[in-house]
Every structure is written in C-alpha cells, then in structure tokens.
Amino acid sequence: xxxxxxxxxxxxxxxxxxxxxxxxxxxxxxxxxxxxxxxxxxxxxxxxxxxxxxxxxxxxxxxxxxxxxxxxxxxxxxxxxxxxxxxxxxxxxxxxxxxxxxxxxxxxxxxxxxxxxxxxxxxxxxxxxxxxxxxxxxxxxxxxxxxxxxxxxxxxxxxxxxxxxxxxxxxxxxxxxxxxxxxxxxxxxxxxxxxxxxxxxxxxxxxxxxxxxxxxxxxxxxxxxxxxxxxxxxxxxxxxxxxxxxxxxxxxxxxxxxxxxxxxxxxxxxxxxxxxxxxxxxxxxxxxxxxxxxxxxxxxxxxxxxxxxxxxxxxxxxx
Length: 319
Ligand SMILES: NC(=O)c1ccc[n+]([C@@H]2O[C@H](COP(=O)([O-])OP(=O)(O)OC[C@H]3O[C@@H](n4cnc5c(N)ncnc54)[C@H](O)[C@@H]3O)[C@@H](O)[C@H]2O)c1
Description:
By secondary structure, the chain is an alpha/beta fold. The protein has eleven helices and ten strands. Nicotinamide-adenine-dinucleotide binds at residues 14-15, 17-21, 38-42, 44, 46, 55, 76-78, 103-106, 126, 130, 153, 155, 202-204, 206-209.
C-alpha cells in the first residue's frame, strides 16, 4: 500500500512541546508536512511559564534536524488573540493551513462544592474554548481553500470517569464531553466545505498522568504499550485527505483504534406511556431483553434523522 503522505500540507499542532502533541508533530513531519509547533509551556494544571525554555522550541529544533520546515508559536490557545496569532503564523510563514490538531490540555481537579468556579473555568477555557478559538480563527480561510482537517482531543473520561485518586474531576469531563459534541457538530457542518473534523479519545503514558499512575499495574501497562507515538499513528489517517469520516470519535491507544459510537436500543414505546409502563418495561428500554432488543441490537445514531427513523421503527406515530 502507498504511504499516506502530507507533502505540501501545513499543520498547526497545539500543546506540541511534549507527549502526545510532540508525537503528532513528528508523525506529520516524517510524512512531509510543515509544522507550526504551538506550546504555552504550562504545568499539568495550567500555570504558564513552567520551564525557562519553551518546550515547543525543542520540538521545532528536533523537526528541523529531520529536514522539516517548522516554526514555533508560544501563545495560549485559551486567548482569542493568541489563537488568532498561531493561525496567522501558519498563513504568513507557509501560505496555508490544512490541519489543526487541538491537543493542548491540562488536567486540573475541581470539586463539586467549588463548581462552577476558577478551576472549572480553567478546564472549560483551555480544553473547550481554546479549540473553538483556534478553529474560529482558521475557519473562513479553510473554507476559502476548500480543505481542512481538524482533530480535537477528547478523553475516555467521557464514558464515566473514576480517577485513580478518587477525586471528582467534573469540569475536565464536562469540557471533554463538550469538545466531542462540538466535533460532531463541526464535522457534520464542515463537510460541505471540504473540512472534516474528528475527535480522538487518547490514552498515553504522559506527563499528564504519570504522577497519578506511576507504580500502579495500570501505569506499568500504559508505560509499556500506550506511547504517545501510538496515539499519533492511529490519528494520522484521520488527518489525511483520504479520511473517510467527519464528526466521528475514536479511542486510540497502544496500537489500537476503535470507533466510538453514539447508540441506543430500539426501546419500549406505547401511545399511552405512563411511569408505570416505563417501570414494567424497564428492561426493554434498557436494551436488555427480546430478540430485537438485545444489547447487540443497539442502533448507531449518526444524526437526527436516524433518531427519527428509530422512533418510527419503535412504533411512534403508528395508530
Ligand atoms: N495522556 C493521556 O492519557 C490522555 C488521556 C485523555 C486525554 N488526553 C488529552 O491529550 C492531550 C495531550 O495530553 P498529554 O498527555 O500529551 O499532556 P501533556 O501535559 O504532556 O501536554 C500538554 C501540553 O499542552 C500545553 N498547554 C497547556 N495549556 C496550553 C495552552 N493554553 N495553550 C497552548 N499549550 C498549552 C502544555 O504546555 C503541554 O506541553 C490533552 O488535551 C489531554 O487532555 C490525554
């Protein structure tokens, strides 16, 4: 099979100073892309100026040593003017922007009794609004060039998160759930303009989680198999011009990629539904009984129309 190349393509990778972001940048560069390496140089919990040298500079040096054209941007994605500058930099330096990888992230724990509060706002600002600012800054020009690939970074925490430290982490999960919904909407809308957006739910042994996982069996397993490079390898196809989907989400880690589906069973329907009927038919509503209603008969809901079709099939509207 021919290599999937990115020659002539320009990619902006946010939070590319280390771990997963660096791996995305290296993979695209190794296949011909020019890279804008963004990093705001934060601690895991988002304080800026964590180290004296911006780690983006180191990654750009690595890329240039491999013969890649790479420039550094040190703005925060969470500030509209910063997002604008990193996008402008791609157009100014390289004349176009084909790929946005919204990877920059923090992990800061907040508590129910503090929400919404400053930590909630930090999570939402960096993990949700940041990607929105970056996309917003590029949108009209991507539309004009009739091509764009956007990869947003969600998290498996959206399935229901039980942190190893036993804490709440609510705002992180809210932001990651919202970015998945945003991607779905963006992906559906953008396709008409040649712009595809998808999301990944990565798992990698990285700076973000090694404090939480170090020395645990899960940590040992992830350190061995769940490398940032394995996340980048799985994501590459989603960034390519041949990418066949838009608005989808994928679990990616350790050499595995799997579509995350939005699904529901056919469910129970009655023209005269009452709370008692719901109680009586609970197992059907849950997708747990009946030849047509088993868990394996969950129906993927790619869009609103499919949801209506499922309602029809379940009997809604039939007299
Ligand atoms: N590591 C995992 O297992 C895992 C799991 C689920 C989701 N994620 C997500 O993957 C992404 C990358 O995580 P990682 O594990 O590589 O973490 P990391 O902490 O190693 O890297 C994050 C990078 O983002 C940068 N950054 C933070 N705030 C920024 C801002 N406002 N503007 C620009 N750059 C900023 C940091 O300086 C850092 O270099 C994050 O969005 C994270 O939430 C990671």
